[in-house]
Amino acid sequence: xxxxDALASLRDEASxxxxxxxAIQNRWTLSKGRDRSGxxxxxxxxxxxSINTLKDVFNCRQCGISGxxxxxxxxxxxxxxxxxxCELITGRKVAEPIDYEKWERDRQLAEQRxxxxxxxSARERERARKGGYEIWESGAKPGFGGAVDTYLKxxxxxxxxxxxxxxxxxxQLREHDYLPYAHPxxxxxxxxxxxRTIHTGPAMLAAITMANGRxxxxxxTWLDAAQPKxxxxxxxxxxxxxxxxxxxxxxxKSGGAIRLxxxxxxxxxxxxxxxxGIETTLTACCHAFxxxxxxxxxxxxxxxxxxxxxxxxxxxxxxxxxxxxxxxFIAPDWCEELVYLGEADEPGxxxxxxxxxxxxxxxxxxEMARQSDPTLPPLKIIYVPxxxxxxxDLNDIAMADAGALxxxxxxxxxxxx
Length: 417
Ligand SMILES: [Zn+2]
Hints:
Elements: H1 5-14, H2 19-25, E1 35-40, E2 44-52, E3 57-60, E4 66-68, H3 70-77, H4 82-90, H5 100-137, H6 147-154, E5 173-186, E6 193-209, E7 215-222, E8 247-251, E9 257-261, E10 271-274, H7 278-287, E11 293-297, H8 301-305, E12 308-310, E13 316-321, E14 337-341, H9 351-372, E15 380-384, E16 409-410
Parallel strand pairs: 10-11, 10-14, 14-15
Antiparallel strand pairs: 1-2, 2-3, 3-4, 5-6, 6-7, 6-9, 7-8, 9-11, 12-13, 15-16
Helix pairs in contact: 1-4, 1-5, 3-4
This protein binds zinc ion.
């Protein structure tokens, strides 16, 4: 986008301010540290809004305003168009004469800040990825009778008489007998995050393989066979309402997936069945197994969905993809059928629409790729709704509904808004 000088100079001047310094200037109450949380400038609350000061991004869990940089923040928080937002940040009107020397300094400063930010994020991602790999490597391949097998059987996932999976080694999972669980605490004095081990015990490990085939992240589920769902229940920490989750991820997802089961014959694969969770995906693999099918978990529905398109008012169109987002899961070229397994929806979660926009993104990428390479197969996209009769995902009815895949709904890609 080439902007007229008056607009470009105003934008570059505004971009010198970070989200964090805008919050400070406007006396928003935010916690200390790298992830600063507090009331949302748009919808209030107490800690639903946060600014990641390292990446200069913001997000509200409630009203959903999110993005990068101060201009976007002011546009969304104050309901302003681009120009009035820049004018508010700089305190200068677009019609005022341009100071070309000052503009050049602003531009260089903004560029330098962006470059440093990108380098810091890349270093951080690589550090997390390496840390994740060390944990993955510390795990052992699971066998029948071990902690992972016991857990899977509790979840009605018994592979002992599976037609293809002869041993749990065929699933890309590992187990760890004694894995520490580190929980972040905020040091009130320095504002820095410190980690303390609050639990140590058996865990199931899964690897997230990035789109380029490299190791991306480790996914950990801490286990407790005494619990009805087999996952550890951790004590509530401090004043936080919810107990820490039994599952954590370390590393970078970057278009990847947990490749739980992949058929050996590369030439014959054609379908990917993907749920958000390991258990949902394994339910299909265990109870509705089909040949030539890879069973990959997406790890996170937002990663399966990718970013949503925004309409002219900046509002998300939940079932339409922002095609510029390339950092989410996109079906690889060999895949001829991509099946997403839905999870039960809750108000404001948009589970179904997220799945559909992810499927549409993969379909549109394939259609574009086929224009330059007509030998690529067309892609069929299918959404399988969650069970309607109780339970929130396929695993909840694991034993009863082996035919659930038959309820799939082929999605047409009608261009929405
Ligand atoms: Zn909000």
